[in-house]
Automatic annotation (TrEMBL):
Highest rank taxon of the organism: Eukaryota
Protein name as it appears in the record: F-box protein At3g26010-like beta-propeller domain-containing protein
InterPro entries assigned to the protein according to its UniProt record, in alphabetical order: At3g26010-like, Beta-prop_At3g26010-like
Domain F-box protein At3g26010-like beta-propeller, chain residue ranges per copy: 4-235
Origin species: Microthlaspi erraticum
Length: 294
């Protein structure tokens, strides 16, 4: 099967077809298995926000040290580079194909509950491993049934890489959302925000997805729609109910409607997510939001 990669601007729209990645060689573990998998896109920006260059990154999940196949907009070619990762086993990622891209770096979560970071515009051949905040290291890596509790979501906000974790409050049948911000100058965590969701009028059926300044975005498990909540004014906006995908696992039973957004609640392991939902309507009391395209 031929693999094609396009890099595009969805606003204009303009799309560029990249040269195909090189085929695996006979010296690899198996000439019939393509071991490089999609990882992400990193960009280099000017101070004014203009894109100066980009790289498409593919990771060989079997290789130790880590092996990356990279397409560079500067050279117009694919190349392979190897990177070592701290730790006795070199890091085992929960998901190689869903890192968070920020400031030319890709961020992954590994099984030892660290954030693995590598700068693809540097000449460094070693990835950096950042331990989670102390309050999170002992948390179990599973969710509480039918709630977002136990989830750990990573994204970007206000020029920072941020981590969002969700903890259950049994006494009020609600949960807290804590936001941790990574300070790139010291590679340490800053506890930026803590929200009791009951105090803003949101119940345990709402799964946090992303946060941007004073607006938190959630997925409503019951109404099957996105929600935006202004944490300062408590104004809320509900998007239109999404149309799910009908699934008929048993021909003798009623067809079940599946929503991919529900997976953010049902995953058993903590995971990375770089996601800002597109809402049809935002609260009129909010300032005009910056548009983010993914």
């Amino acid at each position: 099967m031929e693999i094609r990669y396009y890099v595009g601007n969805p606003v204009l729209p303009q799309w560029i077809l990249l040269p195909p990645p090189p085929l695996p060689t006979e010296t690899e573990e198996s000439p019939f298995v393509y071991t490089f998998s999609d990882s992400g896109l990193v960009t280099r920006k000017h101070n004014n926000g203009a894109i100066l260059g980009y790289k498409v990154v593919r990771k060989n999940s079997r290789a130790r040290p880590w092996s990356f196949e990279i397409f560079s907009s500067d050279t117009g070619k694919w190349s392979v580079t190897q990177v070592t990762c701290p730790g006795p086993h070199g890091g085992f990622l929960l998901n190689t194909s869903n890192p968070v891209s920020f400031n030319g770096k890709l961020h992954w979560l590994d099984l030892s509950r660290r954030v693995i970071v590598h700068d693809f515009f540097s000449h460094d051949k070693q990835a950096r491993a950042i331990s989670l905040p102390d309050n999170l290291k002992c948390l179990p890596a599973f969710t509480i049934k039918n709630t977002p509790c136990g989830k750990m979501i990573c994204t970007t906000s206000q020029g920072y890489f941020v981590l969002i974790d969700v903890g259950f409050i049994k006494e009020v049948n609600s949960y807290n959302v804590r936001v941790w911000r990574l300070k790139s100058d010291s590679w340490s965590w800053d506890h930026a925000l803590e929200i009791n969701m009951a105090s803003v009028g949101l119940g345990p059926s709402c799964v946090p997805m992303a946060i941007d300044i004073e607006v938190i975005y959630l997925w409503d498990l019951q109404s099957k729609c996105f929600v935006a909540c202004n944490l300062r004014t408590l104004a809320k906006s509900y998007g239109a109910r999404k149309v799910g995908t009908p699934v008929n696992s048993n021909p003798f039973e009623t067809r079940e409607t599946v929503y991919k957004e529900d997976d953010f609640r049902s995953e058993h392991l903590s995971f990375l997510s770089h996601f800002v939902p597109s809402l049809q309507v935002l609260p009129t009391t909010l300032r005009k939001p910056k548009m983010i395209y993914i």
